[in-house]
Design goal:
Blueprint lengths: L11 E3 L2 H9 L7 E4 L12 E9 L4 E9 L8 E7 L5 H12 L3 E5 L10 H22 L6 E2 L5 H7 L8 E5 L6 E2 L8 E6 L7 H9 L3 E4 L9 H11 L2
Parallel strand pairs: 5-6, 5-10, 6-7, 8-10, 8-11, 9-11
Antiparallel strand pairs: 1-4, 2-3, 3-4
Helix pairs in contact: 2-3, 2-6
This protein binds S-adenosylmethionine.
S-adenosylmethionine binds next to loops.
């Protein structure tokens, strides 16, 4: 269970509401053991997992005692970041869930020129919080103990302004259907990769040209047109499972 509050061996804590609900659905009893993870990203966060045992089941609260810490890493061998065109309806949930299972380091929902869903303001904040919760649930399901960050929605020009090309960032790859794109395994040696992919209608020529001018190399996933959620997942799987 994800427990974003600081965890320390020996402490007694109330589980956060989401985890408490989950424990109640599972009808756990005092004395039952569970595993907690803090979920932070990055080398500065101890990561890993804590044993814990249920002390008390209230109506809506669950109190547990935190036990031993175990240093367990289940991250992918390289940091793969997705800058993915926002897709309509539940397909974006599916993308976030599957990308989390496959070990994505972060997801930035891209408001592309042809995105059907144009996220702005409070609605965008709610959607990002929802996708972050989808990522947490996927971590709980697959046993991942570092939660990938779902960044705020941004358009391509905004993202490029905030992330000017720098060699230390690793490879920047544009998933593109244009003729003359290179094979994906050109990136296989990079320790970190950013994949840029389009929404259902694809990226506009202007967006692709802008990305190419800012250090993105175009790569192909083959001759078939993959759905907007399939393309980044296929690229991610190719690099995290390799
Ligand atoms: N009709 C749109 C077009 O021509 O761009 C199709 C877009 S496709 C559904 C959505 C995104 O997935 C594309 O913008 C691209 O980033 C990626 N994509 C899909 N198939 C791909 C392939 N075979 N190789 C590389 N990228 C692909």
């Amino acid at each position: 269970f994800h427990c974003p509050a600081p965890l320390a061996t020996g402490a007694e804590i109330d589980l956060p509401p989401g985890a408490a609900r989950h424990v109640q659905v599972l009808r756990l009893q005092p004395g039952d053991g569970i595993t907690l993870f803090h979920g932070g990203q990055g080398a500065g966060d101890p990561g890993g997992e804590f044993d814990a045992s249920v002390l008390r089941m209230g109506r809506s609260d669950v109190r547990v005692q935190v036990g031993a810490h175990h240093t367990i890493e289940r991250e992918a061998p390289r940091a793969v970041h997705l800058l993915a065109g926002i897709t309509a309806n539940e397909r974006m949930d599916w993308l976030v869930e599957k990308a989390t299972e496959l070990g994505v380091a972060s997801i930035t929902p891209l408001v592309a020129e042809r995105s059907v869903l144009k996220l702005k303001g409070e609605r965008a904040d709610k959607k990002i919080a929802h996708w972050q919760a989808v990522a947490v649930a996927a971590c709980e399901q697959c046993g991942r103990n570092r939660v990938p960050v779902v960044h705020g929605a941004v358009d391509l020009a905004g993202w490029l302004r905030a992330h000017p090309p720098a060699p230390a960032q690793g490879a920047r790859l544009l998933l593109s259907l244009r003729a003359g794109t290179g094979p994906l395994h050109a990136a296989a040696a990079a320790a970190a990769v950013v994949f840029l992919s389009g929404p259902e209608g694809g990226l506009s020529a202007t967006e692709e040209d802008l990305a190419l001018a800012q250090g993105f190399a175009p790569v192909t996933l083959g001759p078939r047109v993959l759905r907007a959620e399939t393309a980044p997942l296929a690229a991610l799987a190719a690099l995290t499972l390799a």
